[in-house]
Amino acid sequence: MTLGFSGVCQQINVCNESLMVEKLPACGRTFEEMMKKVDSKKWCNLTEFIMYYDNFTQCTEREANNASCFWPNPLAEGFITGIHKQFFSNCTSEKVHWEDPPDEILITLILIPVLLTCTMITLVVWCSKRSDILV
Q: N or C: which end of the chain has fewer CB within 10 A?
Protein backbone atom coordinates (compact mmCIF):
# COMPACT_ATOMS: atom_id res chain seq x y z
CA MET A 1 0.00 0.00 0.00
CA THR A 2 1.14 3.50 -0.77
CA LEU A 3 -0.13 6.92 0.12
CA GLY A 4 -1.45 8.76 -2.96
CA PHE A 5 -1.49 12.50 -3.70
CA SER A 6 -4.93 12.88 -2.16
CA GLY A 7 -3.84 11.23 1.09
CA VAL A 8 -5.82 8.07 0.30
CA CYS A 9 -4.11 4.71 0.55
CA GLN A 10 -3.74 3.04 -2.83
CA GLN A 11 -2.83 -0.56 -3.44
CA ILE A 12 -0.25 -1.13 -6.15
CA ASN A 13 -0.67 -4.40 -7.98
CA VAL A 14 2.33 -5.88 -9.72
CA CYS A 15 1.74 -7.71 -12.98
CA ASN A 16 1.73 -11.45 -12.39
CA GLU A 17 3.12 -12.46 -15.78
CA SER A 18 3.31 -16.16 -14.93
CA LEU A 19 -0.43 -16.21 -14.08
CA MET A 20 -1.24 -14.38 -17.30
CA VAL A 21 0.89 -16.76 -19.39
CA GLU A 22 -0.86 -19.66 -17.65
CA LYS A 23 -4.37 -18.32 -18.37
CA LEU A 24 -4.00 -16.99 -21.95
CA PRO A 25 -3.89 -20.44 -23.61
CA ALA A 26 -7.47 -21.05 -22.42
CA CYS A 27 -8.52 -18.07 -24.57
CA GLY A 28 -6.64 -19.58 -27.49
CA ARG A 29 -8.28 -23.00 -27.03
CA THR A 30 -11.74 -21.42 -26.92
CA PHE A 31 -10.99 -19.43 -30.07
CA GLU A 32 -9.65 -22.56 -31.76
CA GLU A 33 -12.85 -24.45 -30.92
CA MET A 34 -14.96 -21.64 -32.33
CA MET A 35 -12.84 -21.45 -35.49
CA LYS A 36 -13.48 -25.15 -36.13
CA LYS A 37 -17.06 -24.12 -36.88
CA VAL A 38 -15.83 -21.88 -39.71
CA ASP A 39 -14.74 -23.38 -43.02
CA SER A 40 -10.96 -22.89 -43.25
CA LYS A 41 -11.43 -21.36 -46.72
CA LYS A 42 -13.33 -18.51 -45.03
CA TRP A 43 -10.70 -17.77 -42.36
CA CYS A 44 -9.55 -14.70 -44.27
CA ASN A 45 -13.07 -13.22 -44.31
CA LEU A 46 -13.38 -11.37 -41.01
CA THR A 47 -17.17 -11.20 -41.23
CA GLU A 48 -17.30 -14.98 -40.89
CA PHE A 49 -15.71 -15.05 -37.42
CA ILE A 50 -15.75 -11.50 -36.05
CA MET A 51 -17.73 -12.51 -32.97
CA TYR A 52 -15.28 -15.31 -32.15
CA TYR A 53 -12.35 -12.93 -32.56
CA ASP A 54 -14.05 -10.33 -30.38
CA ASN A 55 -14.59 -12.95 -27.66
CA PHE A 56 -10.93 -13.98 -27.98
CA THR A 57 -9.77 -10.38 -27.63
CA GLN A 58 -11.99 -9.77 -24.62
CA CYS A 59 -10.75 -13.00 -23.04
CA THR A 60 -7.08 -12.01 -23.41
CA GLU A 61 -7.84 -8.57 -22.00
CA ARG A 62 -9.76 -10.04 -19.07
CA GLU A 63 -7.00 -12.54 -18.23
CA ALA A 64 -4.34 -9.82 -18.44
CA ASN A 65 -6.37 -7.59 -16.12
CA ASN A 66 -7.02 -10.51 -13.71
CA ALA A 67 -3.25 -10.94 -13.48
CA SER A 68 -2.93 -7.20 -12.73
CA CYS A 69 -1.24 -6.60 -16.07
CA PHE A 70 -2.04 -3.86 -18.52
CA TRP A 71 -3.39 -4.86 -21.90
CA PRO A 72 -2.04 -5.07 -24.50
CA ASN A 73 1.39 -5.97 -23.25
CA PRO A 74 4.34 -7.70 -24.92
CA LEU A 75 3.41 -11.15 -23.60
CA ALA A 76 -0.24 -10.86 -24.64
CA GLU A 77 0.79 -9.44 -28.02
CA GLY A 78 3.16 -12.37 -28.53
CA PHE A 79 0.36 -14.81 -27.73
CA ILE A 80 -2.09 -13.03 -30.06
CA THR A 81 0.56 -12.99 -32.80
CA GLY A 82 0.93 -16.75 -32.40
CA ILE A 83 -2.83 -17.17 -32.89
CA HIS A 84 -2.64 -14.96 -35.97
CA LYS A 85 0.16 -17.10 -37.40
CA GLN A 86 -1.83 -20.25 -36.70
CA PHE A 87 -5.05 -19.12 -38.34
CA PHE A 88 -4.33 -16.19 -40.63
CA SER A 89 -0.87 -16.78 -42.09
CA ASN A 90 -2.35 -17.38 -45.55
CA CYS A 91 -4.39 -14.17 -45.50
CA THR A 92 -1.85 -11.88 -47.05
CA SER A 93 -3.34 -9.07 -49.04
CA GLU A 94 -2.70 -9.16 -52.74
CA LYS A 95 -0.58 -6.26 -53.87
CA VAL A 96 -1.98 -4.24 -56.72
CA HIS A 97 0.29 -4.15 -59.72
CA TRP A 98 0.04 -0.69 -61.22
CA GLU A 99 0.64 -0.25 -64.92
CA ASP A 100 1.09 2.86 -67.00
CA PRO A 101 -1.79 3.59 -69.36
CA PRO A 102 -1.22 3.10 -73.08
CA ASP A 103 0.97 5.73 -74.70
CA GLU A 104 -1.93 7.35 -76.58
CA ILE A 105 -3.82 8.01 -73.36
CA LEU A 106 -0.71 9.09 -71.47
CA ILE A 107 0.28 11.60 -74.17
CA THR A 108 -3.26 12.99 -74.22
CA LEU A 109 -3.32 13.35 -70.43
CA ILE A 110 -0.04 15.24 -70.55
CA LEU A 111 -0.75 17.47 -73.56
CA ILE A 112 -4.22 18.72 -72.57
CA PRO A 113 -3.08 20.64 -69.44
CA VAL A 114 0.06 21.89 -71.21
CA LEU A 115 -1.93 23.22 -74.18
CA LEU A 116 -4.57 24.75 -71.90
CA THR A 117 -1.86 26.50 -69.92
CA CYS A 118 -0.23 27.87 -73.08
CA THR A 119 -3.62 29.02 -74.39
CA MET A 120 -4.46 30.82 -71.14
CA ILE A 121 -1.07 32.55 -71.06
CA THR A 122 -1.48 33.65 -74.68
CA LEU A 123 -4.95 34.97 -73.95
CA VAL A 124 -3.81 36.93 -70.90
CA VAL A 125 -0.86 38.47 -72.78
CA TRP A 126 -3.02 39.34 -75.80
CA CYS A 127 -5.69 40.94 -73.60
CA SER A 128 -3.13 42.96 -71.64
CA LYS A 129 -1.67 44.41 -74.88
CA ARG A 130 -5.08 45.58 -76.05
CA SER A 131 -5.66 48.52 -73.81
CA ASP A 132 -8.85 49.51 -75.64
CA ILE A 133 -10.65 46.42 -74.27
CA LEU A 134 -9.78 47.27 -70.69
CA VAL A 135 -11.15 50.83 -70.80
A: C
Is the distance from CB of 24 to CB of 72 less than 8 angstroms?
Answer: no
The answer to whether residue 116 scores a pLDDT higher than 90 is yes
Q: Are 53 and 46 in contact (CB under 8 A)?
A: yes
Find the mean pLDDT for residues 23-36: 95
Cα distances from 15 to residues 48, 59, 123, in angstroms, run 35, 17, 75
Q: Give percent above pLDDT 90 in the chain.
A: 63
d(CA 55, CA 31): 8
Asked which of 56-60, 73-77, 87-91, 120-124 is least confident by mean pLDDT, the reply is 87-91
Cβ contact 53:61 at 8 Å: no
Assign 3-class secondary structure to the chain.
CEECCCCCEECCCCCCHHHHHHHHHHHHHHHHHHHCCCCHHHCCCHHHCHHHHHHHHHHHHHHHHHCCCCCCCHHHHHHHHHHHHHHHCCCCCCCCCCCCCCHHHHHHHHHHHHHHHHHHHHHHHHHHHCHHHHC
